[in-house]
Amino acid sequence: MKTFAPEPAAPPPLGEFELIDRFFSRPGHRLPTQVVLGIGDDCALLQPTPGMQWAVSSDMLVCGRHFFPDVSPHSLGHKALAVNLSDLAACGATPVGFTLALSLPQSDAAWLDGFSRGLLELADAHHCSLVGGDTTRGPLTISITVFGEIPPGQALLRSGAVVSDDVWVSGTLGDAALALDCLNGHRNISAPALALARERLERPTPRIGLGTALRGIASSAADISDGLAGDLGHIVRRSGVGAVLDAHAVFSLFTPSHLKDPGSGGACDTSPSPDDVARYTLYGGDDYELVFTASPLQRTTLGAIASQTGTPLTRIGQIVIGDGIELVNSQGTPWKAHGRSFDHFAG
Amino acid sequence: MKTFAPEPAAPPPLGEFELIDRFFSRPGHRLPTQVVLGIGDDCALLQPTPGMQWAVSSDMLVCGRHFFPDVSPHSLGHKALAVNLSDLAACGATPVGFTLALSLPQSDAAWLDGFSRGLLELADAHHCSLVGGDTTRGPLTISITVFGEIPPGQALLRSGAVVSDDVWVSGTLGDAALALDCLNGHRNISAPALALARERLERPTPRIGLGTALRGIASSAADISDGLAGDLGHIVRRSGVGAVLDAHAVFSLFTPSHLKDPGSGGACDTSPSPDDVARYTLYGGDDYELVFTASPLQRTTLGAIASQTGTPLTRIGQIVIGDGIELVNSQGTPWKAHGRSFDHFAG
After folding, report:
1. DSSP β-ladder status, B141-150 and B129-137
2. Chain B environment of A175 (Cβ under 8 Å)
3. For B166-328, which CATH superfamily applies?
4. Which residues are bridge partners to A54 per DSSP?
5. pLDDT tens digits for A45-102?
6. Where along chain A do its domains lie?
7. Is the Cβ pair A344, B3 closer than 8 Å?
8. For the domain with range A16-150, which CATH number is right: 1.10.510.10, 3.30.450.20, 1.10.700.10, 3.30.1330.10?
């Protein structure tokens, strides 16, 4: 579309088409069989695998809100796709492709080089092809829509939890929130420890392998983008059930990366208080682990899945009749979680 | 994801989920058969019609760049989807669904009410369902990804033009550029005339009916979002051919809406100069008409399609051996177009 505003003074301009050709087109790149036509026309053309359903998700990352302006462009490219792939993981879908809409204040070749490498390296790792998109000048904003495939009836939904199911969480929680606290000046930890926490904040690992392994095993799932309380909250609300969580198991999910890597030499200035640990595990977002429910009959199978996919799985509680989420502490006393989720508008 | 910045003072907050429920969820709304699961989970689930291909396109609209900050939210909602549907039209695809990623400075209920109505009214008119998305706080930015279906092998591509094909354009060109000139203070026309031109700038009509009718008839197609020169330029470049256009036919495409509606009482302060008319028709974007090529054997069929779809079609030239676009004026003298397309970065 035409511009509505005078152009600001800018570095040597890089045209929209030149930008796409240089950083995002890869003529020799082998596309998945489902991609009939990739970048370069008005639309991409995809040929779905016969009988499969398509899972679709869109996320938008805004500079200063979802990432710091000085974040490494390589990490940002990784994260922008990772948060979308995480939605596919939460559904158990296999990635196929994605579109990228990118608004940039200026066409900075060094920035674009890092961003596109971070983006496409993760895309290649998951055989997920960039099939189209849009670039424009404006405030730094990244919007990705990702597509994946899944056999009909096998998608993991938020609405499938049933009473007496176990509640599980993959990996550990709180590294991202810890890094954020440090980067916002609320806590000091050693540089090596911060580097490890920051790696999880800025380069999260979408749990694609786990998600597909949970097809037919988990009764419900969500990815933890906004915090365990909020995302498990979606599951219980949509399933019409409640959850009781073992506070000790929940808080034990906070095992910062630097403590798992004794060689890093890192340490917090002070150990996080119990309140901090509760905040990190219950309300810390951005770790992109999965929370899911499954029948207790699946415990052995889930142990095998944990081994096969190299993903630690922790059982943190149970689905019950009722609504909301209750925490039970080590003395058996119910500890009422505040029930609130992070919310982009309510803040 | 968690916020990285302190919240600015804001009007009474409207939560992300409340916002979606209130303005974008329509529980009673009948979804197309392909939509298995719409808004509310980590992913939407779509069941493609067996054998069909999927056409996918993403566009991003940035405040101050693609629209004026004070544009009516109802018009903006319409336009945000229209520019995406126009990409489906250019491919000949039938709309199915779309995702919306929306960044907003604040959650303003009146604005959201208008925006969502404009968006969903156009969506309903084309049986194209909102299936998911993302909302966040940030600079006003709208990113939509649209999906449509088309039988394999029938998509209209930019690369299909062949020598001796006719070049056609739907409707008229230049209203949007005229409106933009007026709104930017470069030209004065009467209020009723401006209202008509502005309607085309702000509420373009995606040529979905024409696009699907052109399956198997047109050899190539593109929508005119950046100007005829640029968008036909894509076709000739990707088809490895050139085009010779009749300047008189091209310039006659500028028939401002107020001249087609004598009752409007509108008139330009001064008639646009020949240079203005050339600029409006060749480089004016935002009209969202289609430019396409077809064998001369299709002229009768195209006359019938024009009648059936109520879409004026004008033959403006021919595909030739060579490259680039040449304009031939009424004296038969070749008039070399500058060959440049509007480009979001080169400006």
Report:
1. unpaired
2. none
3. PurM-like C-terminal domain (3.90.650.10)
4. A149, B46
5. 888 899 899 999 999 999 988 888 889 999 999 999 999 999 999 999 999 999 999 9
6. 16-150, 166-328
7. yes
8. 3.30.1330.10
Closest by Cβ to B59, choosing from A131, A134, A343: A134
- Interface probe for A, chosen from B96, B175, B344 (most Cβ of A below 10 Å), is B344
What tokens does A49 get?
Answer: 């695998």
CA–CA distance, B198 with B67 (Å, rounded to integer): 12
* Backbone phi, psi, residue B331, to 5°: -85, 5
Percent of chain A topping pLDDT 70: 86
Most confident of A23-37, A170-184, B290-304: B290-304
Q: Is the dihedral of CA B324, B329, B334, B338 positive or negative?
A: negative
Mean pLDDT of chain A: 85
Cα dihedral B25, B31, B35, B40, rounded to 10, equals 20
Q: Find the distance separating the first CA and the last CA of chain A, reported in whole Å.
A: 34
Structure pTM?
0.88
Phi-psi region of A219 (alpha: psi -120 to 50; beta: other; left: phi over 0): alpha
B-chain residues within 8 Å CB-CB of A66?
Answer: 1, 4, 136
Residues of A in contact with B346 (CB under 8 A): 13, 15-16
**ipTM for the complex?**
0.86
